[in-house]
Specification:
Length: 451
């Protein structure tokens, strides 16, 4: 097809798998903005078939808006339909979605997906299958919803050696943490509020245990550092055990606690971790509230860059899905070797840089413990830290809330350390907990300066 006949080209045909929040959002955005989208893409983009578990219900919701779209409950039939150029997978999960995506690729179709779990766990298999068939797998919507962070990492920042990424990439947990801080709620109450308001799923495990954020961090780490996706090597810790007391103490010390997805290049390897993290309250990213997402990327040439926006929801996610549909439409006739590689780096040039076990990660730490309020206790603790080369940055002593008479004469100590290896802090904690004057376990939280 030559350029001057472009305007006459048939629209590219898309088959949609799934018609939930993201699927229906994609349908609506594409239909509403079709004129501008086709002016950008160079030809129309049309969803002509939709596979949905309950076509009758979808029919009811869509009514006349459905136009010429054919609904079916046969997902494989859509994937196998020779009239379709692109399959947009919007069903989620890793089992059926994996089968359908691989089948679509095998059929020579391009794939657009919002499925972070699928790519974080099975990305290597899927990208290799796509390479063999010369098709594209586009996944902007898989990380941070509407924020074009994949585009930024893979193309906008391509000149840079990326040093680190730190992201608030799960809106549910950011909403819960914001509620805990602003309203002094405990985790369970803030979660119940989030569920009532529709920010958290009935089964919130993936979100509150940090798994969703780890899927997204895994994908970003692969693109930033040119390594395969390795979800199984990510360290994952959620917010379920976070105590409202620590949010308060952190605040007094000038910090906010956020669930961060961190991917960092070090001389030993790559850190890939998700956990509650104290960050200085004055950082822009510390002030990302509610269900919003933000990703901080540090490149050697550009310095710090920050991307902010909605990480979930029908139309913000559809914004990313439709951008991928446009990308595929623009590039599907290009030589596969000249397209942007799935993971930013050429597939035969991916590195074997190891992902570091959490013991080998370097961080500064917030420690909270309850001690007998008597002479020499602090000296014992600082001696243990000094013996392991751990230096103290700040110390706060707080009158403990006395729950019963046995706790009279006790006090809370909050310590902030300088950077050390995680295995060193763990050794220090077990030695501190063995002191007879220490009356509680040590609460330990990691910190990031992000400067
Ligand atoms: N459940 C996710 C969140 C959105 O709370 O951010 C989809 O990844």
């Amino acid at each position: 097809m030559t350029h001057d006949t472009r305007g006459m080209m048939e629209p590219i045909k898309v088959g949609l798998l799934g018609f939930g929040t993201v699927g229906s959002g994609t349908f609506n955005v594409l239909r509403r903005n079709q004129e501008e989208i086709s002016r950008r893409a160079g030809r129309g983009i049309e969803i002509t078939r939709v596979a949905v578990r309950n076509p009758a219900k979808a029919q009811q919701v869509l009514g006349d808006a459905l136009g010429t779209v054919a609904l079916t409950s046969d997902f494989a039939a859509v994937v196998d339909d020779p009239s379709l150029d692109i399959i947009a997978e919007m069903i989620g999960g890793t089992d059926i979605a994996r089968e359908l995506v691989l089948r679509a690729i095998h059929n020579g179709k391009h794939v657009v997906t919002a499925n972070k779990a699928l790519l974080a766990v099975h990305g290597t298999e899927i990208f290799e299958a796509a390479r063999v068939k010369g098709v594209m797998v586009a996944f902007e919507a898989a990380v941070a919803g509407g924020i074009p962070i994949i585009k930024a990492l893979r193309e906008g920042l391509t000149a840079n050696r990326i040093q680190y990424i730190a992201g608030i990439i799960n809106g549910t947990t950011n909403f819960i943490l914001s509620e805990m801080r602003e309203r002094g709620l405990d985790f369970a109450t803030a979660l119940a509020d989030a569920q009532r308001l529709g920010y958290a799923e009935a089964d919130p495990t993936f979100d509150v245990e940090g798994i969703d954020a780890a899927h997204k961090a895994t994908i970003m780490a692969a693109i930033a550092f040119g390594v395969p996706v390795q979800f199984e090597r990510a360290y994952v810790e959620g917010i379920t055990r976070l105590d409202a007391l620590d949010i308060r103490y952190a605040e007094e010390l000038g910090y906010r606690i956020k669930l961060l997805g961190i991917a960092r290049r070090t001389t030993q390897g790559i850190e890939l971790r998700v956990h509650p993290t104290l960050i200085p309250a004055k950082r822009l990213i510390a002030n990302v509230q509610g269900a919003m997402n933000a990703v901080l990327v540090y490149g050697d040439a550009v310095g710090a860059t920050l991307y902010y926006g909605k990480g979930a929801g029908a139309e913000p996610t559809a914004s990313a899905v439709v951008a991928d549909l446009v990308d595929v439409t623009r590039l599907h006739t290009a030589d596969p070797n000249n397209r942007v590689p799935h993971l930013a780096f050429q597939p035969d040039r991916l590195a074997t840089t190891p992902i570091l076990p959490i013991d080998e990660v370097t961080s500064s730490y917030y420690l909270r413990l309850r001690v007998a309020d008597q002479t020499g206790v602090l000296a014992d603790i600082t001696r243990i830290l000094a013996a392991l080369g751990i230096s103290i940055d700040a110390l706060l002593q707080k009158e403990s809330e006395v729950v019963d008479a046995s706790q009279a004469g006790e006090t809370d100590i909050i310590l902030i350390t300088h950077e050390t290896l995680e295995k060193n802090i763990n050794t220090a904690i077990s030695r501190i907990e063995a002191l007879s004057t220490v009356r509680s376990g040590v609460t330990r939280l990691r910190m990031e300066a992000l400067n």
